[in-house]
Every structure is written in structure tokens, then in C-alpha cells.
Design goal:
This protein is of the alpha+beta class. The chain contains twelve helices and six strands. α1 (about 5-20) runs antiparallel to α2, α7 crosses α8 (about 140-160) and α9 (about 165-185) packs across α11.
């Protein structure tokens, strides 16, 4: 098998590692491409191509994350990960861990970790790498990696309870949510939301966005019920999709361009505890042509004014 075949076989794993470290589809794709360039330029074939490439993509991702931290601290409004509709790496034996680790909630918790803690956690707890491989990838001793993992696990486990969500119940909850959303049914929405639900929007200063996080079932239900039926009147369509391993939807304008991605977080009681809305066009470009959110916002404002 040649170098390109080796690489293509491992590309899904490399992307999935990089995405979980970086929370960005575009940055993960760049890290994978840089890994290929380094592998292709190496004069010899390593004993383990998987170890070489996973080490390379991890080191590149750590460097990118360190520089990205500064940009995220200066970000306009709330920063959310780039939505991922399809994780290319699949492992039936670790399906639950893979789905859980790519959720918006998990990625936001990972943001609290240092780049090294984040990388060790991803390699060990998500992809089950050995400590010898992890030590090589992050440039630390195995003992240091074990300590990094302990700290990372503590932060991750303290941040949210872990539970086994029933996929069928979760998907039914999402179906009911999007039905109520399309009808502007405040009561129906409120019944599906956790009391302390949060609606978080990310426009990055490049699309209309929430001025703040909206909290509480009644507040979130009223806002959603007021806005989304109007969107349908200007041709916006809702396409239920799995987003970051959880229920969600892709919203498009009348010309089929991507306007928004909504991701739902379901709690252990079977209610929606978080709604993450990504509108920043820079984070939607990998999904296809992007809508003009400002133009749509103008149309919505005109509709609201006319209906008063």
C-alpha cells in the first residue's frame, strides 16, 4: 500500500481527532492536510503509519489551538464550535463515547481545558490510545500524561453528569420540538424544555445574534415561538439533522442556502437543557452556500412591524 492509500485510510480518524481538539471543521481539515504534507515529505515509511500520523495531527492541532485561544477570547459574543453534521470516523465498539465526545456540550467543556489536557483526554478517553502513543504525540512523559488525564477527567465530569440517553426517546423529543417550533406553540415548546434551559447564539458579529444568553423555559419558548413561524413566511425551511451527534436542524433560505444550524442538548430527565444556534457564516461555509442573514433579518423585522 502506498503513502496516499495509507493516508486516505486514516483520514477519518485524523479529522475526528483534530476536530475534537479544535472544535473547528475548517481548522481540523487544515491540520489533516498539513499532516499529509509532512508524511508525504518524510523520506522513510514509519513503522506505524497510524502512530506517526496521529502524533503529527495532534501536535499540529495543539499549536493551532494555542493561537486560536487568543482569537476566541476576543470573539464577538459567545463562541460555539463549528457544527459537524457527519463524523467521518466510526467505531461500533465506541459509538457512545464518540457521539458523546463530539456534542456541543462536551466541546464547550473541552474549551476549559489546556491544549495538552484536551489532547490527552481526546486520545485516551475517546480514541483509546495507549499512554506510550499519547506521550509521543504530546511530547510529555507517560506519567505526566496520566496526571493530565486525571485533571481533564475531573473538569469534564464536574462539568456535567454522564448518562445514557435513549436515542429513540431523544429523537422523538426533537421531532416534537421542531413541530412545536414550526407552529409557534409556546406551551408545547415550554413543556419540552428543562426549567433552566439556555438558548445560546453565535453570530460572531457577522450575523444577527442574541444580545445575551436567554435562560428559563418560559423565556426561551416565547422567543422561539415568536421568531420561527415568521422565518417560514420568508421562505426559511427546517431540515432536521443530527448535529454533533445530537438532535438538531439545518435551516435554509428560500434559495437553499444555509442560514443557521440548531443543536439540541437533552438532559437525563428527557428534556431539552440547551439550544445552541450557530449563525456565523464563517462557521457554516463547509455545509454549502451561506444565506444573507442580515437581509433575512430585515425581512423579519418588516413582518413583525406589519403584524403589530
Amino acid at each position: 500500500m502506498g503513502k496516499s492509500e495509507d493516508f486516505e485510510e486514516l483520514r477519518p480518524l485524523l479529522f475526528s481527532i483534530a476536530y475534537r481538539i479544535l472544535g473547528s471543521v475548517s481548522e481540523a481539515e487544515d491540520a489533516v492536510q498539513e499532516s499529509w504534507l509532512r508524511y508525504d515529505a518524510s523520506p522513510t515509511r514509519p513503522d506505524s503509519v497510524k502512530s506517526f500520523l496521529s502524533t503529527t495531527v495532534t501536535r499540529i492541532s495543539i499549536d493551532v489551538l494555542r493561537s486560536a485561544r487568543v482569537r476566541r477570547e476576543q470573539y464577538a459574543g459567545t463562541w460555539l464550535p463549528e457544527p459537524l453534521l457527519d463524523d467521518p470516523y466510526g467505531d461500533p465498539a465506541r459509538a457512545a463515547e464518540l457521539s458523546d465526545s463530539v456534542s456541543m456540550a462536551a466541546l464547550l467543556l473541552l474549551e476549559r481545558l489546556s491544549p495538552l489536557e484536551r489532547s490527552v483526554f481526546v486520545l485516551r478517553d475517546v480514541f483509546a490510545f495507549g499512554f506510550d502513543e499519547i506521550a509521543e504525540a504530546v511530547g510529555r512523559s507517560q506519567a505526566a500524561c496520566r496526571q493530565l488525564l486525571v485533571r481533564a477527567r475531573r473538569h469534564m465530569h464536574d462539568g456535567r453528569p454522564r448518562f445514557e440517553a435513549d436515542r429513540a426517546e431523544r429523537d422523538e423529543l426533537a421531532r416534537r420540538f421542531f413541530d412545536a417550533l414550526s407552529q409557534g406553540d409556546v406551551g408545547g415548546l415550554q413543556n419540552l424544555l428543562a426549567a433552566d434551559v439556555q438558548l445560546v447564539g453565535d453570530g460572531g458579529g457577522k450575523a444577527p445574534q442574541l444580545a445575551r444568553i436567554v435562560a428559563g423555559a418560559a423565556n426561551v419558548a416565547r422567543l422561539l415561538a415568536a421568531v420561527h413561524p415568521l422565518k417560514a413566511r420568508v421562505g426559511v425551511t427546517c431540515e432536521p439533522r443530527e448535529v454533533n451527534g445530537q438532535p438538531g436542524a439545518l435551516f435554509r433560505d428560500r434559495d437553499g442556502r444555509v442560514l443557521q444550524v440548531l443543536a439540541l442538548g437533552v438532559d437525563a430527565d428527557g428534556r431539552i437543557a440547551a439550544i445552541h444556534s450557530v449563525l456565523n457564516p464563517d462557521k457554516l461555509g463547509h455545509l454549502g452556500p451561506v444565506a444573507d442573514a442580515w437581509s433575512l433579518d430585515t425581512q423579519l423585522r418588516a413582518l413583525r412591524a406589519h403584524s403589530r
